[in-house]
Specification:
The complex is a heterodimer.
Chain A lengths: L1 H11 L6 E5 L8 H6 L4 E3 L4 H13 L3 E7 L8 H9 L5 E6 L17 H6 L4 E4 L4 H13 L3 E6 L21 E4 L5 E4 L4 H13 L5 E4 L2 E3 L4 H9 L3 E8 L4 H11 L7 E6 L10 H7 L4 H12 L2
Parallel strand pairs in A: 1-2, 1-3, 3-4, 4-6, 5-6, 8-9, 8-11, 11-12
Antiparallel strand pairs in A: 5-10, 7-9
Chain B lengths: L2 H19 L4 H18 L14 E4 L5 H10 L40 H14 L6 E6 L6 H12 L5 E7 L8 H4 L5 H7 L3 E6 L3 H8 L10 E6 L14 H4 L4 H13 L2
Helix pairs in contact in B: 1-2, 1-3, 1-10, 2-3, 2-8, 4-5
């Protein structure tokens, strides 16, 4: 996802010369082309995320379109107050890019597990929270947030689900979930690159004769409820899948939507991370298996919920 | 308006605002009133009728708790009516205790959590350099605020990027929230700390208007370096029983204390 983001961003600078990419001293080898092509639109702020975010707000207040760039929790947690007070409260076009959502950096340890970011960021006022689930969505999102004059948190993943070659060709609109497949066995709402596991579960379930609906919730905030209402009415149940804590993430968002709108899905299940930190080391795929987020676990949980 | 007259008006307004709203931080507002008055009377370029004038100098109060003094200065120089000051701290007011920009023309940045204003000011100054604009950025810090690591992150960035269009004024009254600076986290050698971070640093008397003017008129004092003026001040300046007292960081002036303070300030008109 990272490469798709930076390539698209690089292609946008010519039409949007006020774009400035600020890195917190990360992106070795990845940002070279951008920096070489647009040296005046590039700043390395050093290992100083609070200042990076503060200057981002100051530059955006002077009319720049800012992208701050770092990995995992670094661009959001150390500087959360700068995001809240300086960027969000002042309604700035500061876009915070985190490379390595969920267990993307699983082997590096808990400091590099971005597993609460979606919950934390969606609680902030006046912010857009986007976690694309495919390369296509990454490119679309990058273009969309340049023009979206608000703070945006963009969570990018190492993994990615397949998209335009195998879906209902739905457009990317900030805040509007995209229905990728139609089906009535159940609906899986998914956010982020873990869509790849959901696609595998889709294939397994289809082999068993069960057609499921997949909805990519690329934007957690703002959020259009239409797809949730429809899924509750027309499919056998609602399942949410996220590589994020169950406290306040996608599953919570869908549950809130259901209760707030007085709708009753036939069945409901949230799949995500339970209590506690992951002290286990391993690849993203390995850790998903450890915590029941892999395709096999998703398949069996869905079968148990709907048919069990 | 002459800077001394403006300084006195800021003090009187700040005292009345603290009294009527039940607010605190009067000591902090009084200690920086002269710095503010000189900036708004003699140094900064701005147009109250056009608060977003592109060429205006930007002013950021990073020590947001002394917002009453900024509201007072802005009202006195014409950004909004001085009558609005009476709403400070009141239910439904735009004028929060810590300085806020929403519906308050002239305020560039809402602050209140210490250690934020300098980075934002650095970002503004960086854009001025990138886009070859002439405006300058003034950021007023408190001394206690320099405990924050983010101040020093910003200081490193500003000198690395040669932001000589950036001016930091430090209200060095030597008292923070609970105790003196010396007993909390000592800042000395303060000037050489800034110099070692690559800044042009000067120590001046933060109540001496002539000294403030002569220094600020000649900035940048060293080309390609950001400027810091460590302004030696007295917390609670202008009200004898508030001066150099930790108590008046938080205490709200009420009753006889308010009457005495007001009388003393009005005598100095």
């Amino acid at each position: 996802m990272r490469d798709h983001f930076i390539n698209r961003l690089t292609s946008l600078v010519e039409d949007h010369p006020s774009i400035v990419l600020i890195t917190g001293d990360l992106g070795f080898g990845v940002l070279d082309e951008f920096q070489k092509k647009y040296p005046d639109n590039f700043i390395n702020a050093g290992v100083a995320e609070q200042n990076m975010t503060g200057i981002a707000a100051g530059m955006a207040l002077e009319g720049k379109i800012i992208f701050t760039y770092s990995i995992a929790n670094f661009p959001i947690l150390r500087c959360l107050e700068q995001i809240r007070n300086d960027a969000c409260y002042h309604e700035t076009n500061v876009n915070i890019i985190s490379i390595g959502g969920g267990f993307s950096y699983g082997a590096l340890g808990i400091s590099h597990h971005a597993t609460e970011d979606l919950s934390i960021m969606r609680s902030l006022p006046d912010i857009t929270v986007i976690a694309p689930s495919s390369y296509w969505e990454v490119e679309q999102a990058t273009e969309a947030i340049v023009q979206n004059e608000k703070v945006c948190y963009l969570r990018l993943d190492k993994s990615s689900g397949r998209d335009m070659d195998n879906n209902l060709q739905q457009p990317f609109l900030i805040g509007k979930p995209r229905t990728l497949t139609d089906g009535d066995y159940c609906t899986i709402f998914v956010t982020g690159g873990i869509l790849e596991e959901v696609w595998e579960a889709y294939d397994s379930l289809q082999n068993l004769g069960h057609k499921i609906r997949i909805v990519s919730v690329h934007t957690l905030k703002p959020f259009d409820k239409t797809a949730v209402i429809d899924a509750a009415k027309t499919t056998g149940g609602i399942v949410t899948v996220e590589e994020n804590t169950l406290d306040g993430g996608l599953g919570s968002l869908i549950a809130e939507t259901i209760l707030d709108n007085g709708i009753r899905p036939k069945k409901f299940l949230r799949i995500g991370l339970g209590p506690g930190f992951s002290s286990i080391v391993g690849s993203q795929k390995y850790l998903r298996k450890c915590y029941g987020l892999d395709s096999k676990s998703i398949t069996s949980k869905v079968l148990k919920l709907i048919s069990g | 308006m002459e800077s001394k007259e403006l300084a006195n008006k800021i003090r009187v307004h700040a005292l009345k605002m603290a009294n009527s709203g039940g607010g605190s931080h009067i000591g902090s507002a009084l200690s920086m009133a002269d710095i503010l008055a000189v900036l708004y009377s003699d140094i900064m370029n701005f147009d109250p009728k056009n608060p977003k004038l592109e060429t205006r100098d930007r002013f950021i109060l990073s020590k947001g708790h002394a917002g009453a003094a900024v509201y007072a200065a802005l009202a006195e120089v014409g950004f909004f009516s001085t009558e609005k000051l009476a709403t400070h701290y009141q239910d439904g007011s735009d004028l929060s205790g810590h300085v806020s920009h929403k519906n308050v023309p002239g305020v560039e940045l809402s602050t209140g959590s210490l250690g934020h204003g300098l980075s934002v000011g650095v970002g503004m100054a960086k854009v001025a350099k990138m886009d070859k604009k002439d405006f300058r950025v003034f950021v007023l810090l408190s001394d206690g605020e320099c405990d924050e690591g983010s101040i020093w992150e910003a200081a490193m960035f500003a000198s690395h990027h040669e932001l000589d269009n950036l001016v930091v004024m430090i209200d060095y009254n030597k008292i923070q929230s609970l105790d003196s600076i010396e007993n909390t986290l000592g800042l000395e050698p303060f000037k050489s700390k800034w110099e070692s971070f690559g800044w042009s640093a000067n120590e001046i008397n933060g109540h001496d208007h002539n000294q403030l003017k002569s220094n600020l008129e000649n900035m940048p004092s060293i080309e390609s370096k950001p400027n810091v003026y460590i302004c030696h001040t007295t917390k609670g300046k202008g009200v004898s029983f508030m001066e150099n007292s930790v108590l008046w960081h938080y205490r709200c002036p009420k009753g006889e204390e308010f009457d005495l303070a007001l009388e003393e300030l009005q005598q100095k008109k």
